[in-house]
Amino acid sequence: MPRLAFRVWAAVVGTLTLVAGCGGDGGGGDSGEGRRPAGAHVTIRVPADAPTISAAVSLAQPGDLVLVAPGVYHESVRIDRPRVTLRGVSRDKVVIDGRLRQPNGVLVSAPGVAVQNLTVRNNTQNGVLITGSAKAAAGLPGTGDGYDTGDEPVTFLKSFLVSHVTATRNGLYGIYAFSAQNGVIAHSYASGGADSGIYVGQCKPCNIVVRDNVAELNAVGYEGTNASEDMYVVRNRLVGNRVGLTTNSNHQEKLLPQKGSVIAGNLVAANQQAATPQQADGGWGIGIGIDGGSDNQIVRNRVAGHRNAGLVLTATADIPTLANQIAENTFADNAVDVGWTFPTATPRRGNCLRGNELRRTVPARLATTAACPVPAGTSSPTGTWTAPTAPGGIPFTEVAAPAPQPQFPDAATTGATTVPPVPALPKTANIPLPPVSLLAANARVGAS
């Protein structure tokens, strides 16, 4: 530990709460000082033990909990020590506010970190960024559609958890896992993301679960770019964005093409809101979009109320779209339920539909002509339809403020969270179709 940090530690150690651990931790670069009993972890309270969140993190060792009291904190917090838990006492009252002067509210660049029960807002790029990329962690590049890290080798951050976090009014993404593996984003809320509310990019195999979140009033609710293999997006409410959900391949990030995601049990509805940021590609009125992705399973989602299309399957000119399965979904009140539209020269084979509740597809009769299973070499048909004109968007800074969100249980009394090296992955067969009653719960954002 640097001497300055040691002096700060000495000043506050008498007030820190010692918590017995199950074993010694050798990480964190703090060996040789002999300041703690073996296996002991502490709770570092902000502002009682450290004046800022960043100061508290600088004191933390693996296994410690940084517990933050209500207040608005004007700082950018970087967690570069492994297995630290950052938690707010109150999700809505612990606010990290970037005041549009910093790229990230919370930047996680060490494994095993948990970020819980707080709000991040008004950052020029991301509310929470989890990354193993040094270039992304440096804050640039970070405009347009994400991070182009040039010739930087792919380095993964391994294991993370983001839960009960509210991310609102951020200039790129609300919660962003980039070049990361083995993580969970759960029970969180994202709004006002100028690109998307929740984003996972550049991972293979991902071993990432995005579950039980709410994303509304973003350009895109959830986006996965070059996010492949054991990538699960399940049981989320993606309502009232411009586009609900996309999974795609993009040359700007490494590890393309995208393949092997499971998108199951999500409510995707009324994604055509005008009072939202406008993404660069101008998408609007679309529930689920798959662009140049392959071997994805889109299963038991409820997709309703889209003026363009419930699900669009397409491709860029040089990335094939292969063997996507669309099964047991319910589509309702969409101008087009499922539409396939491909560039003529792009390979597109083996895409199929099975057991969906459908009204209109483009091309027509897809449920019959592209029924699962289809031979792997069978070219998928293509068609076109008239898309509605998208209204202009609004600045992300003007998106409506979120309502209070559910709290992390016993936030002030529960100890640090242990993040597993690899998360438990859901079983797709056990994920049900969301009930239609969830549509009424989102009437506010689905009204326009």
From TrEMBL:
Gene3D superfamilies: Single-stranded right-handed beta-helix, Pectin lyase-like (2.160.20.10)
Record field: transmembrane: none
Domain Periplasmic copper-binding protein NosD beta helix: 168-338
Presence of the UniProt keyword Repeat in the record: yes
Keyword check for Disulfide bond: no
Classification via SMART domains: PbH1
Keywords, sorted A to Z: Repeat
Protein name in the entry: Right-handed parallel beta-helix repeat-containing protein
Organism classification: Bacteria, Bacillati, Actinomycetota, Actinomycetes, Kitasatosporales
